[in-house]
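Hi U.,

Before I forget, here's the chain from the pilot set. I'm dumping it here mostly so it's searchable later in email.
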Amino acid sequence: MITWDLRGHGHSDYPADPSRYSTALAVGDMLGLLDEVGAERAVLAGHSLGGYLSLEVVLAHPDRVEALVLVDTGPGFRNDDARDRWNAGADRYAARLEERGLAGLAAGPEQRLDEHRDATGLVHSARGMLRQHDAHVLDGLPTIDVPTLVVVGRADEQFLPGARYMAAKIPGARLVEIAGAGHAPNITHAEAFDRHLLEFLEPSEAA
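Structure:
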């Protein structure tokens, strides 16, 4: 198992140039990491923005993906108004971080103030990777041809509809809704999350 920090996050590099933060570059980072460790194919597991980026990888490079685990994420928007509202929220998030630094992070179990060096990378990520531009990921869901597990906290009202939509559109996808969990079921409900993940990764012979 390999865990990694998106550029601008955690212990990865924080480029000062905003143009160094884009979906295309993030996909390149993921493929470069697989190349570095000699992995031809991998199970991609992504939470929130990481899940969206995992969808970008499987659509652009299906030969590199063995299976998908999508956790409290969404596939983007077809409706322009909905996309504009999302982008406005991303811009507000970036502006809040510019003004308040890491103290501007929303409270939640998935956020730790000590996991980032500063807020600069998060600001650039919000404007360069979090913003949405079209519906190509959403439109590509029916073409995904790898085993897929979609996990969502049932209390995560913002991402619950998208999770259900992805599970319905990705052929053969399995949907798990974890009762009582919000946006970070892997942290707040780790036992249930781990059980479903292991069942997906290591199915019994009877299954």
